């Protein structure tokens, strides 16, 4: 069974950090591009960051540039999202997703596999 499992969410104060993990089971991530998306209550889903596991090319949404870092570990079949300088507006459910493409993008409808999501709450 092909599965993505996110972890690492939680409650953090503004300015704090969290590191999200996305582990793949049943398939090998190095043949995929992996995206991190988020959805806040009442808002549309948006792409945050993505990475091509084959070539290592990374992309970031403007809201994430300079604060978030995506990385992949093919040996662990896991992708990470390090989030620093968190803001209340980063509060959302964060999802990782996989698409069998060489290059990544933020077109969520193209992603074939999705995790269950992990809640990130940034608040005092």
Features:
seven-stranded mixed β-sheet, globular, mainly beta, four-stranded antiparallel β-sheet, single chain, 124 residues
What does this structure look like?
- This protein is mostly beta strands.
- The chain is built from no helices and eleven strands.
- It has strands spanning 3-7, 10-12, 18-25, 33-39, 46-52, 58-60, 68-73, 78-83, 92-99, 113-114, 118-122.
- Strands 2, 4, 5, 6, 9, 10 and 11 form a seven-stranded mixed beta sheet that branches. Strands 1-3-8-7 form a four-stranded antiparallel beta sheet, with no helix packed on it.
- A hairpin with a 4-residue loop joins strand 7 and strand 8.
- It is globular, with a radius of gyration of 13 Å.
- It starts with a strand and ends with a strand.
How much helix, percentage-wise, in residues? under 10%
The number of helical segments is 0
* Strand tally: 11
- Sheet of most strands: 7 strands, mixed
Quaternary state of this entry equals: single chain
Unreliable segments of 5+ consecutive residues: none
| β-sheet strand percentage | over 45%
Distance between the termini: 40 Å
Instruction: Give average pLDDT, whole number.
Output: 95
Backbone CA Rg: 13 Å
Which structural category fits the helices and strands?
Answer: mainly beta
Q: Which word captures the global form?
A: globular
Give the topology string: H per helix, E per strand. Answer: EEEEEEEEEEE
